[in-house]
Amino acid sequence: MCLTIPAKVVSVEEGLSGSPIRNLIVEDSKGRKEVKALMIDDLKAGDWVLYSFDTAVRKIGADDAREILELLEPRAGIDVTRLKTDFVNILKACHTRMLEREEVIRLLKTSDPIEIKALCSEANTIRQANLKDFFCIHGIIEFSNHCVRECHYCGLRRGSRDVTRYRMEPQEIVAAVADAVDKRGYKLIVLQSGDDFLYTDDMLVDILKEIKKRCQVFIFMSVGERGLDCYKRMREAGASGVLFRFETSHEAIYNTLHPGQSFRQRVELLKGMKEMGYYVASGFLIGLPGQTVEDIADDILFMKFFGVNMVTVGPFVPCEKTPLATHPHGSAEMTLKVTAISRLLMPRAKIPVTTALETIESEEGRRLGLSSGANSLMFNLTPERYRDDYRIYPNKYHGNEAIWEKYGLSKEILSYKMLEKKMLEAFV
Ligand code: 5AD
Question: Which of these ranges, 10-24, 89-103, 375-389, has the smallest mean pLDDT?
């Protein structure tokens, strides 16, 4: 589902006689623009509409418009005269060339609130220029919390004895997807689980086939390290994307935090997925033990050079009874800087605000992420009775979904088509 943006109608030009399409001039914070209105009755100057790209989709009340504008409002203005020249030059340079590693490090290292504001605001402008106000809301269904891995940071690691484990039945997974698509208007859903091999390759393939038979929806698989043959079969069965983080590009840190796994193997899998034509969502954790700012710069450059289609970066959040239980959480400020720099380097990538940022910053994290270059949100659609048991880390944030969903293009075929267009563009 795509988040539509409110704008005020300035004028309405009637279409050719008999045509349901009319041209509108609308005005929002970015100025005036022309959009098409398709079958919206009684439109007149002064009304508010919701639009996405160049199409107005429905009329809304002024109060509703104010509500969504407040959710998306960028932060206060910046006093550019107080910015240092070298910093401004880097922000300018990203428009014409790839930034050097040292420049990325310079941006990451700033703790000056005015520089951070300028960085986030620049990212927000680049997002607007490249993707317009095409915000998307995607869903995630966590269908099993069993995991054979022992990742040091994760509450679902095999050794976590206190977790109440669950597995959703294939039919239950299909029904949860169908519900989200039919009743709530979702167009892209991530199916996530621990590395749980009780779901055989055949089962995952069958689940995908069943979903694709029943629903018009993009499915992203996030089922961990399985053979490339499994990923190939899932792609053929209709999976469009994968959500598969490399977690850190620092090989030694990776190998320490993932006993029995290897960074090289992880990257080989990612490459294989890309070659199969998957839309690749990948990224890393911020605040891992031993990770330096330079490592974070390398993580960002890894995403850029690998060519991820969706950037997924979040702060580490400590989870009790894991080896990293007492390690401090990753910084929200660093997460926002990484989000912004990712946007500078990857102007057209999809960048969701991650739940981990929302967890350490609540609703503010969501708003800050969206005004720092991010352009989508990922809402949790796991059935209530399982939700609390998917404890990657504690107190995972869920909030205000209903208000946000209200502005999605619920049940509109148009938003599926727009998303399809965006996804295809990712491959040109
Ligand atoms: N804090 C933040 N993110 C975590 N993940 C796992 N454990 C944690 C944690 N404690 C992330 C990993 C994984 C994704 C599914 O969840 O990056 O890829």
Answer: 10-24
pLDDT value at position 159? Answer: 95
Ligand 1 center from residue 199 Cα (angstroms):
21
Q: Measured from the CA of 283, which atom of ligand 1 is nearest?
A: 17
Q: Burial letters for 160-192: b for 16+ Cβ neighbours within 10 Å, e otherwise?
A: beebeebbbebeebbbbbeebbeebbbbbbbbb
Nearest CA to ligand 1 atom 14: 245
What domains appear along the chain, each with residue ranges and CATH number?
Answer: 2-70 (2.30.30.140), 130-425 (3.20.20.70)
Residues 6+ apart with CB under 8 A from 269: 225, 228, 231, 244
The pLDDT tens digits of the residues spanning 68-109 come to 777 666 545 667 778 999 999 999 999 999 999 999 999 999
Residues having CB closer than 6 A to ligand 1 are 153-154, 245, 247, 285, 314, 316-317, 319, 356, 392-393
The one-letter code for the residue type at 363 is: E
DSSP-assigned letters across all residues of 91-126: HHHTTTSPPPHHHHHHHHH---HHHHHHHHHHHHHH
Instruction: Give the CA count within 13 Å in the CB-facing half-sphere of 240.
Output: 19
Residues pairing with 26 in the sheet:
9, 33
Which secondary structure element, helix H or strand E, spans residue 361, and what is its range? helix 355-370
Q: Determine which residue's CA is closest to atom 8 belonging to ligand 1.
A: 154
Q: How far is the CA of 118 from the centre of ligand 1 (A)?
A: 29
Does the model's pTM come out above 0.85?
yes
Find the 151 Cα to ligand 1 centroid distance in Å: 9
What is the pLDDT, as a whole number, of residue 82? Answer: 84
Alpha carbon of 316 to ligand 1 centroid (Å)? 7
